[in-house]
Specification:
alpha/beta, Rossmann fold, two-stranded antiparallel ribbon, 6 helices, 9 strands, about 25% helix
């Protein structure tokens, strides 16, 4: 009801959020806050976004059930699970192996079978699987991720935060057409930075 009040009207998105148990994706010490509309810390200095931001980004992405989706930044796997409920297949990239192992365990526990995972550099995308119908980036890029833009098909869409950490960041929608890209500013946000490369194992 809170998400509806704040403008989330896509019934498929609301249904997906209702079906995916967020409490399974937050650390045990924060389980009592799993349903609060707030971001929460997870391992490796990352966060799980607040439910409104997840719902808003997903609604703006406009995922169809025949679409192939790329997610950059698996994190806890919560956004991934939402996307998987809406798409034909979701490909997700994470630079932290520890986070990916935990996310994969959650996907297995929930018997989600249409997610393909990769440890890798999110800025490079997943060229072997392009083009994608939709791309979502869950960390803030300081500059345009050109390779990701080019991995969208014509008619494709990407949602991502742009801006420096600790400074003004904004969520933007990028739509690809025959002539190039149309960019639309959406809402102010705060995300962890999109970092190049793969993190080393401790």
């Amino acid at each position: 009801m809170e998400l509806r009040r704040r403008g989330i009207t896509d019934q498929r998105v609301l249904s997906a959020i209702e079906r995916v148990p967020r409490e399974l994706f937050v650390p045990d010490m924060f389980s009592d806050q799993a349903f609060d509309d707030t971001a929460l810390p997870i391992d490796c200095g990352q966060t799980i976004s607040q439910p409104f931001v997840v719902a808003y980004m997903t609604q703006m992405l406009d995922v169809g059930d025949r679409m192939k989706v790329l997610e950059v930044g698996t994190g806890s796997g919560y956004q991934t699970a939402i996307l998987a409920a809406l798409s034909r297949r979701t490909y997700t990239i994470e630079r932290y192996p520890d986070l990916m192992r935990e996310a994969e365990r959650r996907f297995n526990d929930l018997k989600i079978t249409n997610i393909t995972t990769r440890i890798g550099d999110g800025l490079k995308g997943w060229p072997e699987q392009e083009p994608f119908d939709r791309i979502i980036v869950t960390a803030a890029a300081e500059e345009w991720p050109v390779e990701l833009c080019n991995q969208m098909k014509i008619g494709g869409r990407m949602i991502l935060p742009i801006g420096k950490t600790g400074a003004d960041q904004k969520l933007v929608r990028v739509d690809r057409n025959q002539e190039g890209f149309d960019v639309t500013d959406l809402i102010p946000v705060r995300f962890v930075p999109l970092v190049e490369g793969v993190a080393r194992e401790p």
